Amino acid sequence: MTARGVGVTEAVAGSVPDVLVVVLVALTTLGSTYVVTTAGPFVYLFGDRFGVVGRRNGARLLAVTIGGLALVVLLKGAFAEPRPPESVMRIAEDGNGFPSGHATGSAAFYGGLAALLGVGSRARRYAAGAAMILLVSFTRVALGVHYLVDVLAGMVVGVAFVGVVLALTRRRVVYGFLLAVALAAAAVGVLGPTTDAVAALGGTVGALVGWLVVDERSAVDRAVRPVAGTLAVLAFGGAAAATLGLEAGAPAVFAAHAAAGTVFVGLPAVQNFSR
Assuming Cys at both sites, which of 28, 105, 173, 178 could form a disulfide with 139, CB separation 3.0 to 4.6 Å? Predict the structure, then answer.
């Protein structure tokens, strides 16, 4: 543990006043799986309506986001490195520590968002994206739930993954979703049918199916009604999250996440939600 930087984490986390812990907890959620997997679909579905990102680039962002999360599951399982000891943590966290999922996920989502947004200058977008990534990563060390090397590795992996997926999807978006499925399948192969791995596989398979339907029906630019679309995302996303909270079996977790992924991406192809 010392080699991974327990001294740095202990010093930073130990210097945080108790009154600021609740603030750090709120800030760290900006990089949580629940936030990025909810924000991503909203950007994809409604970004074009507000003139901030087109539907196709929104799909590329989704591929980056879910693929990055699948990569986190795979790498955490492959390295199986522990978190800092409970005596250092300011909040309770379990699971493996390397790389930081929050750092990787925020780098993938906010990095991808900065690259794909159609508003503001590139320099300002990248500066804002970097600030969000650094903020989330700092909270993980300040809360004592990750070593410094965990978040540094997560940021590097996340940013590199953005570059790979954006290059891969420049001509065909489906390649990004196929990569996400491959990473999730590899996670299941390495870890076995764990909850996180099965959830990642279900979500990525669903997203791939949704995109294939949208593409086949030439519905990429079709509008989605805000209220109906929002309710669908919240309902299916909530159902998927519930299977995790209730510790449902692998079949239920897979089915719920596959349904959520399909709905999130496939909504533009559903006539009842458009026009």
Answer: 28
